[in-house]
Amino acid sequence: MEISSKEHTHFFSNNTIVPVDRSSFKSESSASKEKQSCCGGIKIFLGALSFVYFAKALSGSYLKSTITQIERRFDIPSSLVGVIDGSFEIGNLLIIILVSYFGAKLHRPRIIGAGCLIMSAGTFLIAMPQFFMGRYRYERFPSTINSTVSFSPCLQDKSQTPLSALEKSQTKINAGCEKEVGSSMWIYVLLGNLLRGIGETPIQPLGITYIDDYAVEENAALYIGCVQTVAIIGPIFGFLLGSLCAKLYVDIGFVDLDSITISPKDVEWVGAWWLGYLIAGVISILAGIPFWFLPKHLPKPESRKDSSTSSEHSKFIIEENKEQRTSYWQQAKIAEMAKGKAPEFSSRLLKFFPSLKNLFGNPVYILYLCASIIQFNSLIGMVTYKPKYIEQQYGQTSSKTNFVIGLINIPAVAFGIFSGGLIMKKFGIGVLGAAKLSLGSSFFGYLLLLSLFAMGCENSDVAGLTVSYHGAKPMTDYKEALFSECNSGCSCSKNDWDPICGEDGVTYVSACLAGCQASNGSGKNTVFFNCSCVGTFESSQSSSAVVGPCQKGNECPKMFLYFLVISVITSYTLSVGGTPGYILVLRCIKPHLKSFALGIYTLAIRVLAGIPAPVYFGVAIDTTCLKWGNKRCGGRGACRLYDSSALRYVYLGLTLVLGTVSTFFSVAVLWVLRKRSSPQDETLSASGERGTCGTKSRKDNFVNSDRLIQSTYWPEKETRL
Question: Name one GO molecular function term (predicted).
Fold first, then answer.
């Protein structure tokens, strides 16, 4: 006890003698508090931004899942649907430059919150036409509608025929047109998607730079990676939501569902497409709320206060402070610069063109840019119309198609993106290796795509369109082939589409064209009897038919399974080359041109791939249509029946041709890199000390590149299938 007391006494005496620097304690405690507030603030922002990325990815993928629903609801061709799909990119491009430049000077979280509100407004605008264009009307003969009156489909006398079953008179057409208020309602869908593009614009550039400015430097890449991971989860839920809504009838809650005579297997079926947009709009509003309560600035981490590299936002702050201290003469000079008369402004403007010339003078960059533009044309077109292709080629419902894409294809894409980065990290792949990996990914991906040509289904047997009434392929125009001797005594319209399935396994365009004399039952349970055209090439005895088209052949379900397996492998293979391709661009550009190069890259992808690809893919798909629907006011509506073989060759062929051309450009990139590199460069490139693009110092450049690759936007990354 005495020893311990002496030790304590000695300890306290020493403490009283040695002076204590209390300011250091204060600075340490304040630093710890600042660090805690910084970490807490950035993590809140990280969670909010991740939710926004989820919301925008969900709404974007949901739009892809409703392409066929919108086409049928508004009776428009695929080419016009492509214009609607591309309007998102147009809206994004309208303000991307203003947001990227001026957004860093303003309150970035609130700008993101405002963008979420605009995005939700656009999403609600897309759903609005459903509540103003009346109930959905599909073509059905009156006998298939629940009614106590029974009509004969094949009527010998036109006086017995209801007006809706004959060619409409001019007065009927005029009356119908006055009621057809929703004939141009698709414009609201286009404007809503345009508004979605405008609202989505500030999320990526301002959100990522905010994290990069205020996060601890070693955590920035991890945080951005978390945001991108959540963004990939969004499309999964988007397509699953599309699958759920496609099961529900479009007018659910407004009509008696027992009176509906079509099923989800019919080509005229339209699901509750609008319901998903309301859900997506609410999610966008909720995602934007936290940003209105976040501060404009967060405390800078201690590791970054003494950093020589200042953030983009801090540069603007410095410029603003300098502007406040400028003299009257300098302010006048700035005013002249705003008018475009100052020599300094013109000198800055003149620097743009040498930078552009330097960028496009880099053969690796320009060749890879061309390869990416062409490849994204093929991938965006393929992704946009993949649901339609599965529905028409394999006879699947919209609900099942969206479920398969969301649950199988998108996880394969996410795993492919992750694998590409993991391969580069594990094997220390340099620039030349990245070019090889990107080329190999594209080559084997499109090689697998080639095998899908053999995994299609034959055309369904439709009398007068794919087969004649005598069992042979029609030799004349299909409009004339719809009429035959067996239905010559009937007063039928060639414009109707009310398919029935005969006992012979052949689909007939309508009960009238099948020569049916009587019917029994109502709604989905209607059965037609004494059909003179059914079974004419098998037996002389007339047969019966039921409502709805016949199913595809027995081999089609097996082909669909093969298609899914190859499609998943192809999606994974093509996605592996995404990250190496970006690394290739970043490491072959001079450091001061890196941001400019990525901006030009994103702009080119959006303008030359995101906008035109859905349009000309839609035009090409429209050429394979065998039977068009007709609008009430006249004119061509949505396609009712496609030529399966022609659709397969057009859809896959266009994708494969574009992919092949992009592969040639990738080969040229590899050739240029090999020509510039030496064996020593390749070994040094693998160790991360020097690349193969002719620059001298690369060590710091690689660090910046790895951080930058996480923050750049990969166009259509979330929905590449």
Answer: bile acid transmembrane transporter activity
